[in-house]
């Protein structure tokens, strides 16, 4: 009777151990299969007031004033350079750890020159911006500008002074209508920019020229997969618009921008760019491209109208890239407006600053948490030559744009005790119990054999 009870106990223990192993495997499998909260969570929304500090340059220019400075930029060695007009300002810049450069014309003079150009006859196909590094205002004219119009604009420049440089450029200045993800409507094809929210609904921030209010957008050419509807836009003057999602939500990965091949970049904050900064742009036509910020507060006279306050870069873009995001180190900077050239021969591309669009539209940027689940709140940009050098910048931390986890993501979940620890403990305990029952059974069989052998041989 006692042996029968022992057999029942052993069988129940073995069944419980096997069940524990199965339960533990299920727990681990579910932990691995479940999308980790850090990848798709949207715990923080950045406003224009949460702008990442771009370094001492902007602060110095603001403190010294527009009559004593003429802009700042990042040098090739990563050091901040500030254009100054007097020796005392130069000493203040040096004391702040930046490099001064003496120039002849102040920011006030450069701004006055651009205002004079703006008040002259509008010539489609022209653009101008303040070149801090050369201490000039550069006026560009594309191939559509007639000889007479160019001559008239040159006379205006000559009247301003010798610090206005006239340049002819290849191609034409056009909006890049026609990836970030492609979106299509009767107005043409554009690229989705950044996801934003008003606290209740979620939207796509993209270029204003992509379509007027009421434009309906789709993610396929047959018009079967509706994305949303344009509910607010500003163009010309500015170049931004909002597309409200059809179901009110951006969905998974709202804080990630696509860069092609199922890859993406986490957006963790919003900031103002600096001249000389390395930046990256993604668009549905030409994919991920990089270049440098060459000027700020640029004005472009598109055929459709004039847009001011733009970021000028030497990043290439092509039709269909309009509205796509520009970023650096995971910081949102702008959405693609237009430009000249293409990605075979190069060109100039202009971007609508994100900060101004957020403020005007009264929305917040949806961002992703940084790797490791850290808070997504913007932090000051790193300083020093190694961190700020244009060549050392990167798009930001990578993230998949689909719900299928990558191998590295699976590995991180398997090694994360918060996700699979309980399951592994159940499996381990069950394995110990199963081995113990097998050992006990073997030991009992050995002892029974010894007793039987002793009885046979006396």
Tell me what the structure shows.
With about 450 residues, the protein is an alpha+beta fold. It contains ten helices and 27 strands. It has a seven-stranded antiparallel beta sheet, with helices on one face. The radius of gyration is 31 Å and the shape is globular. The model is unreliable at about 30-45, about 375-390 and about 400-420 (pLDDT under 50).
Strand content of the residues, in percent? 25-35%
Low-pLDDT windows of residues: 32-43, 375-388, 402-419
> Shape from CA axes?
globular
The first-to-last residue Cα distance is 27 Å
Number of strands: 27
Strand order of the largest sheet: 1-26-12-13-16-15-14
**Helix proportion range:** 25-40%
Mean pLDDT: 81
Major pleated sheet: 7 strands, antiparallel
Global Rg: 31 Å
Briefly note the structural class of the backbone.
alpha+beta
Number of helices: 10
Task: Indicate the topology.
Blueprint: H1 2-33, H2 37-40, E1 44-46, E2 51-52, H3 56-64, E3 69-74, E4 80-84, H4 87-95, E5 99-102, H5 107-119, E6 126-131, E7 136-141, H6 147-160, E8 164-168, E9 174-175, E10 182-185, E11 188-191, E12 194-197, E13 202-206, E14 216-218, E15 226-234, E16 240-245, E17 256-260, E18 263-266, E19 269-271, E20 278-283, E21 287-302, E22 305-313, E23 325-328, E24 331-342, E25 346-353, H7 354-361, E26 364-367, H8 385-388, E27 398-400, H9 407-414, H10 417-457
Parallel strand pairs: 2-19, 4-5, 7-8, 19-24
Antiparallel strand pairs: 1-26, 3-4, 6-7, 6-21, 9-24, 10-11, 12-13, 12-26, 13-16, 14-15, 15-16, 17-18, 18-27, 20-21, 20-23, 21-22, 22-25, 23-24, 24-25
Helix pairs in contact: 1-10
